[in-house]
Structures are given as C-alpha cells and as structure tokens.
Write a structure and sequence with these properties.
This protein is of the alpha/beta class. Helix content is 40%, strand content 22%. The model has no long low-confidence stretch (mean pLDDT 92). It binds flavin-adenine dinucleotide. Pfam families: FAD_binding_3.
Length: 457
C-alpha cells in the first residue's frame, strides 16, 4: 500500500473533535507540502452538539497542542485555557465522604501555558473549557459539516469514505477520529469492543455563585480538580475555574460536576427514570446522593450544587451554555491492546475511536492530542519509509501509550466502585498516604535535579 505517484496524497479525517481537529491543523502546519487534507463531521454546524465540560490538559497535551497548531490558533489558546490565577491550584485533591483530605497530587504552579510547555517534567497542566478549546481549534479549519460517515471502501490505490447522505470522497489515507461509537473502528476492527465498567455517571455544567465557589475552595484548599469518595461506590467530581464568567456584584464561576455510582443500584431497584427529562434525571441524582451519603455539610453542598442545574435553556445569560440536558451515562472504555495488532493499511484510528477511557484520570483528550502529534511525526518520513511503515510505527506506539492510560483509568474506576467496610477504609487511606509520599519524592527529586542541572549550565 503506497500513495499513488505524481500527485500529492490526500488525507481524509472523519470527526472534527479535539483529536481530529488537532491532526487537521498539524497536517497543514507540519506536512503541508506533502499532503492535502479534508475533514468531515456528522454535525450540521459547530453549535449542533454541546461541547461543554471543563477538562484538564496535562503537560503532554499542552506540548502536543503547541506542536500541532499554527500561530493563529495558538494566539487564541487563552480563551480556552486562561492563564492560572494566583489562588488556583491546577491539580487534584481527593477527600472522603465528609470532606477530610485523603490525597493531593503535588504539581508545579505555573503562570501560563508557555511555562507548562517548557517544563522538563510532566507534573503540571491547566483546566480548559472544552467547548472553547473546540471553538479555537475550528479557527481556519474548513470543515464539511453534515457528513455522517457510515463506513469506507478500500481499493488498490486508495480509500473511499462513505456518508449517510449517499455521497463519498476518495483519498489515500482515512483517519477515523469519530469518537467512541466510531463506525470506522467497527468496520476495521470488529472485535475491538467497548467495555462497560458498571458505573453510571451524571455529568453537568453549572454556573455557581461566589459563596458556593468559596465553600468548595475551602474544602479543597483552592485545588481545582476535586473528588469526594463515598462509602458506597459513589464519587462526586467537580472541576472549577476561579475566573468569574460575568461582571455581576456576586460573580458566577463555571463548574463541571460528575456524580457516579454503581449501575447495579439502578438495576436492582428497577427504578424508572426518563433520561429525556432533565428534571427526572436530576431528581434521581439528588435522591442517590441522599441515599448513599451521610447527612453532613458536604452532602448538603453537593445537593445545593446539583439543584442549580437548569431544566431548560435559560437563554444567553452566561457567555457559555450551562444547559445540556443531563442524562445517565455509563463509564465505558476501549483497550487497544485487548486485541492482536491490526492491519497497518490506509485506515488509521485516533482518539476515543480507538482508546476511549473513563474521565476519572482526565486522560482521554490528552491522548487524542498526542495521537495527532505522533501520527504527524511518523508521516514526516513517508517519502523515505512508505505509508505502511509510518502507520505501523504510529499504531505500535499509540496502542502501548493509550492502553496504559485506559487500564489506569479503568483500575481507578473499579476500585472506587466497591463499597467500603471499616477495614477497607484503613487500607484505602493508607494507600493514599503512600501514593502521596511517592509522588512528592519524585517531584522533589526531579525539581532538584533540574535546578542543579540549570545552575551547572
Ligand atoms: C465528563 C467528562 C470529563 C472529561 N474530562 C477530561 C479531562 O479532564 N481530560 C481529558 O484529557 N479528557 C477528558 N475527557 C475525555 C475527552 O472529552 C475525550 O477523550 C475527547 O473529547 C476525545 O476526543 P476525540 O476527538 O477523540 O473524540 P470526540 O471529542 O468524541 O469527537 C468526535 C467527533 O467525531 C464526530 N463524529 C462522530 N461520529 C461521526 C460519524 N459517524 N461521522 C462523522 N463524524 C462523526 C463527532 O461529532 C465529534 O465532533 C472527559 C470526558 C467527559 C465525558
């Protein structure tokens, strides 16, 4: 399989999410003279689907984003990833069911994305507005909207992408960046299955007033990625930025919440919830919290936060949409190493399409962006090595890296799903203490060596 001679080969990308768009920009920036690129998305316009959630972009994700994107996109990064302000700690803190600290991941405090990129270690990152990040990545991208891919056809000299509207396009390489339900993956690797982790999650975005943000920040000591572990396999996640989203007297802040609990509770109790009715879903989330959590200040705060979720579109009060119909969703993942390696042909997978992972460790988008970076770097060599070799090297590295993160995220979720007795609590709390010490020592040593190295230079 090689690109046909005498013409510039064309790359087709299915899916204009974070992964597909990063790769699109990267081809144009880094491979511009070697390849043409076209990108398609099933949505009818950029506003079609809610792209909310605060998400954590780690040092590797930031570095790859800089590699993939041109200056005009990078100039807009502060809209999506505003520089950390002094009181914000862009890291994770875990507390127990009544708010006692269990774990805190030490991180280097940085003032901007540029500082993160230039660090020689990985312990830094930034909370970004996912919808804004996508908006910024749409800058200068010529997306063909309303093109729902339903599969592909390979032939000797190329590949056709097939769309639901009956049309098709021809190219030399097809990139499936079409998310967890990717039809391209299902056709290419039918035995690479989605794994259900037995946890149900309700994810929402809310605008919270300053007094609630202050209460959260005092529990979590100004750490922005916050998790409270319940005793019954449930967990309350919140991602906050302390940048006001409006100019009112009591400012509002943007908060993402994810409340998860074991799915078998819903099955056992045979409850009926209308997932198309936001009120029904939120009433259910609140009643689960009341059922699984002890009455205490923290539980009251969580209920208060969930009560702010709008049941209908509130209009344009905030500069972003807080309303996204809440639904119950399952934690699912795809481990690319769960099947033997697949054919290194003209059809290549990237992002959630090939390695979806649950959000607990905040690694899904970071992996999608790293895929875009890696695939570009491999394709830089295609004239000497040929497409097959480049894609083989991409697949090998992508599978190992992303599988590691899928499994780490899966283990975290499965551990949290188990209800805890008194003995389990002692073991869990000790494990967190040991993990904290290990991280602390690693970061201390890395920072020390780095300083010594710099002063030596
Ligand atoms: C609550 C929550 C919190 C998260 N937090 C983090 C975090 O902190 N850090 C992190 O790194 N990750 C996080 N993630 C995961 C992250 O959002 C995903 O891993 C990331 O969006 C994957 O990007 P992608 O481009 O591969 O896929 P997607 O973002 O799913 O994009 C796929 C694109 O393909 C399009 N598409 C789908 N089907 C078709 C089709 N048939 N034809 C054409 N186009 C199609 C879609 O419209 C979409 O635009 C979180 C996820 C959730 C749900």
């Amino acid at each position: 399989m090689e690109a046909s001679t005498n013409k510039i080969p064309t790359i087709l990308i299915a899916g204009a999410g974070i992964g597909g768009l990063s790769f699109y920009h990267s081809v144009r920036k880094n491979l511009g003279k070697k390849f043409n690129v076209k990108i398609f998305d099933r949505e009818t316009s950029p506003q079609d689907r809610w792209q909310g959630h605060n998400i954590y972009i780690n040092k590797k994700g930031v570095t790859s984003l800089f590699y993939c994107t041109p200056a005009e996109v990078q100039d807009r990064f502060p809209e999506a990833m505003p520089d950390p302000i002094s009181k914000e700690y862009h890291t994770i803190m875990i507390v127990d069911h009544i708010g006692r600290q269990l774990f805190y991941l030490p991180q280097q405090k940085t003032k901007s994305l540029y500082e993160i990129e230039s660090l020689n270690h990985d312990y830094a990152g930034v909370i970004s507005y996912r919808n804004k990040l996508r908006e910024v990545l749409l800058e200068g991208a010529d997306i063909q909207w309303g093109k729902k891919c339903i599969g592909y056809e390979e032939c000797d000299n190329g590949v056709w992408i097939l769309f639901e509207d009956g049309t098709r396009e021809f190219g030399d390489l097809l990139i499936g960046a079409d998310g967890v339900n990717s039809p391209i993956r299902k056709q290419k690797i039918p035995n690479l299955e989605i794994n259900d982790l037995g946890l149900t999650s309700i994810d929402v975005d809310v605008a919270i007033p300053k007094n609630l943000a202050d209460r959260l920040m005092s529990i979590y000591s100004n750490v922005l990625i916050q998790q409270s572990l319940g005793l019954n396999g449930d967990s309350f996640f919140s991602y906050l930025r302390l940048i006001p989203i409006d100019q009112s007297e009591e400012p509002f802040y943007r908060l993402t919440i994810g409340y998860s609990y074991p799915t078998n509770l819903d099955i056992k109790e045979n409850i009926s919830i209308d997932d198309n009715d936001p009120e029904s879903v939120m009433k259910h989330a609140i009643s689960r919290i009341k059922q699984l959590r002890p009455p205490c200040e923290l539980t009251d705060l969580f209920i208060e936060l969930l009560s702010l979720v709008p049941f209908s579109h509130p209009g344009e009060k905030y500069p972003y949409r807080t309303y996204n119909p809440p639904r119950r969703r399952q934690f699912r993942d795809i481990d690319p190493l769960s099947v033997p390696s697949w054919k290194n042909d003209r059809v290549v997978l990237l992002g959630d399409a090939v390695h979806a992972m649950n959000p607990l460790l905040g690694l899904g988008a970071n992996n999608a962006i790293q895929d875009a970076d890696l695939l570009t770097k491999e394709l830089l060599n295609y004239e000497n090595d040929g497409l097959t070799k480049c894609i083989q090297r991409y697949n090998e590295q992508m599978r190992v890296r992303s599988s590691r993160d899928v499994i780490a995220s899966r283990k975290t979720a499965l551990r949290q799903k188990v209800p805890l007795g008194n003995m389990d609590l002692i073991v869990r709390n000790s494990m967190f203490k040991v993990t904290f010490m290990v991280y602390y020592i690693i970061i201390f040593i890395k920072t020390l060596f780095l300083r010594m190295y710099k002063s030596y230079l």
